[in-house]
Amino acid sequence: MTVRGLLVDLDGTLVDTSGANYAAYAAALSCYGVTIDEDWWTRNAFGRNWRDFLPDLLEDRPDIEPRAVAAKKAALYPEHLTASRLNHALVQLIAGMRPGVKTALVTAASRVNALAVLEHHGADTLFDLVVTGDDVRAHKPAPEAYILAASRLGVPADECLVIEDSPAGIAAAEAFGSPCLIVRHDGGTA
């Protein structure tokens, strides 16, 4: 297989952002009197766009707008990025494949949050393109974000390699038609 495009997930793959995301969402929700614990976060929300879990969490609280919670979380998120960890081995792999391979970060995160993470870790120069949850209607496990990234890079699916960690992301890569390298949350690969 010839790899001409490398499509990399952010949360849990390039950067372990679980702690930062949890802390920022917990702080944002507490402003509205809603409490979550880290166990709930890991099971129900990690790696998912806010549109896919906040409405369910807040269904008994019609007085709280999920979009407002997401905006509050985005504002608080940079304060919590010290709780995130960069996958240095993956950074080395990406850097070693450039410039011969086109690269895209493909994430369900918002553009604001994704760019904040990249900048915080000095990884903002690794990618030719960033596709976020703001750019698509259907989030992973739908393949829309991967289709968009490959199209913008001008690389067909069978010449892309997706790097993912979550079941939803792996399913999206499979539906996209690209091989997938699976990265565990501890930074190793499977």
Based on the model shown, name its key terms.
190 residues; alpha/beta; 2 domains; five-stranded parallel β-sheet; two-stranded antiparallel sheet; 8 helices; 7 strands; 39% helix
Read across the widest sheet, the strand sequence of neighbours is 5-4-1-6-7
Shape: globular
Radius of gyration: 16 Å
CATH topology name of the largest domain, in short, is: Rossmann fold
Helix content: 25-40%
Element pattern in H and E:
EEHHHHEHEHEHEHE
> In CATH, what is the homologous superfamily of the largest domain?
HAD superfamily/HAD-like
Structural class of the helices, strands and pairings?
alpha/beta
Kindly state the number of beta strands. Answer: 7
Strand content: 5-15%
Average pLDDT number: 93
Number of domains: 2
> Main beta sheet: strand number and arrangement?
5 strands, parallel
- CATH C-level class of the largest domain: Alpha Beta
CATH architecture descriptor name of the largest domain:
3-Layer(aba) Sandwich
Structural summary, described in words:
This protein has 190 residues and is of the alpha/beta class. The chain folds into two domains: 5-16 and 84-182, 3-Layer(aba) Sandwich (Rossmann fold), CATH 3.40.50; 18-82. Helices cover 39% and strands 13% of the residues. It has eight helices and seven strands. The protein has helices at residues 18-30, 38-44, 54-57, 66-76, 88-97, 111-120, 144-153, 167-176, and strands spanning 5-8, 15-16, 85-86, 102-106, 129-131, 160-164, 180-182. Helix 1 (18-30) packs across helix 4 (66-76). It is globular and about 50 Å long. The protein starts with a strand and ends in an 8-residue tail after the last strand.
